[in-house]
Amino acid sequence: MEITGRLTKGAQVRTTQTDKEVVGFTIAINDSYRKKGASEVAQLVTYIDCSYWRSAAIAPYLTKGTIVQLSGRLNEPRIWQDMEGTARANLSFTINEIKILGGGNKSNASSPQETKPTSPTKGKKTAQAVAATTGEEDDLPF
Description:
Layout: E1 2-7, E2 12-15, E3 21-34, E4 41-52, E5 66-74, E6 78-81, E7 87-103, H1 127-134
Parallel strand pairs: 4-7
Antiparallel strand pairs: 1-3, 1-5, 2-3, 3-4, 5-7, 6-7
Keywords: DNA-binding
Region (Disordered): 102-142
GO molecular function: single-stranded DNA binding
């Protein structure tokens, strides 16, 4: 199953009793619809608690407002009662794959930097540089 939403706050890394790290965060999925016969558009927001068990290294990139596309499975809802006795439910999602689509607070997360080779030819590779990176001594790659 795939879902797309926006993080409500920055991701948090927790460590379990068995020393496994899990990245946890909540996303909001916005939807709008028009009720039959109404002229106003109604807004609906669904909140889903998410957990990612594969690598905690992604946590700094998951900041408030970041739009993510998640692949995984929806778990059974957890049903509970609030203090007034109203029935409530929490949805949770176990993630297999995360795609960061954009948005978010970029000042809190350091984005990966692309490394560029420095050479006196200002970006043009020489035959020796190409041979060194491809493992070929005499042949040009084109």
